[in-house]
Amino acid sequence: MLDGRQRMAEDFRRWMHYLTPGPAHRRLGLVCLGVGHLEGRLPTVGPRALDHHVAVVVTQGKGWFSHAGEEPVEVVAPSVLWLLPGVRHHYAPHDDTGWTEWFVDFTGPAATAYQDLGFVDAVSPVTPLTTAEPAAHGIGRIAQAIRRGSPYLEVETSALVHEVLVALRHARVDEDAAGDPVLTGLARDACLPISVAEHARRLGMTVADLRVVVRRLAGCSPKDYLLSIRLTRAKDLLAGSELSIASIARRVGYDDPAYFTRIFTRRAGLPPSEFRAQQHGGLASAGLS
């Protein structure tokens, strides 16, 4: 007869690799702590809580997931399970089907930013996907880098975690491949000299609903979202045209050049004239002016 460990080995297969980034690597803002691949009738995980984030990407099979003591919810591949720092979780595939999963452990201030921006869904920690292939491929690339070894390993794996998180956001079932119509509408009209209330009216929404949607999708208020688009456009015009600062201010929605200068300086850290001088100075030194 097979003992328990032999039966377990026949029921599922797995590989896992872990990293221990040093203080300098942690200053990158996001570091990979480990990756793994498991398939088959896996044992139940938890209840437990970790001190870092984990994305568990389920590529095949079905199971269940419990988060923060709530009732278990059904998991159907392709999906991602978000394990959040300090939050107890408990999950497993169904015994009759098992599942295939790829996971990546990560931490750092940028992980919190990704959560604030909605890339890591703390409200609905079981997120259905249209496809898990890009994220699973990214996790596989992290594993290949670890096996290969490199003096730049922690930096390389950090960059790949960013790619995995972006791939998971693009693959969400509720993500419009053409872009969210609310954000698309705001971006289209961002440089018009109109209020947030008028933007909401054009989109057929209340201001309160607009705030909720933009906060969920972009991690900021509608005013900040519009401001970022305006100032990005202003930087392009400052660097790539000979338009006066007053003309650029009007093009990005500000009738008062002095107000535009104040808000540009506050957000960019230097006045528009200095930003332009820096960019033109760089071109001149390169012989491109």
From TrEMBL:
| Keyword terms, alphabetized | Activator, Cytoplasm, DNA-binding, Transcription, Transcription regulation
Molecular functions (GO terms): DNA-binding transcription factor activity; sequence-specific DNA binding
- Check the record and name the Gene3D superfamilies matching this protein: Homeodomain-like (1.10.10.60)
Q: Which residues form the signal peptide?
A: none
Instruction: Describe the location of the HTH araC/xylS-type domain by residue ranges.
Output: 180-278
Q: Which SMART domains match?
A: HTH_ARAC
Question: What's the protein called, per UniProt?
Answer: AraC-like DNA-binding protein
Q: Which organism is it from?
A: Nonomuraea dietziae
Lineage per the UniProt record: Bacteria, Bacillati, Actinomycetota, Actinomycetes, Streptosporangiales
What top-level branch of life does the organism fall under?
Answer: Bacteria
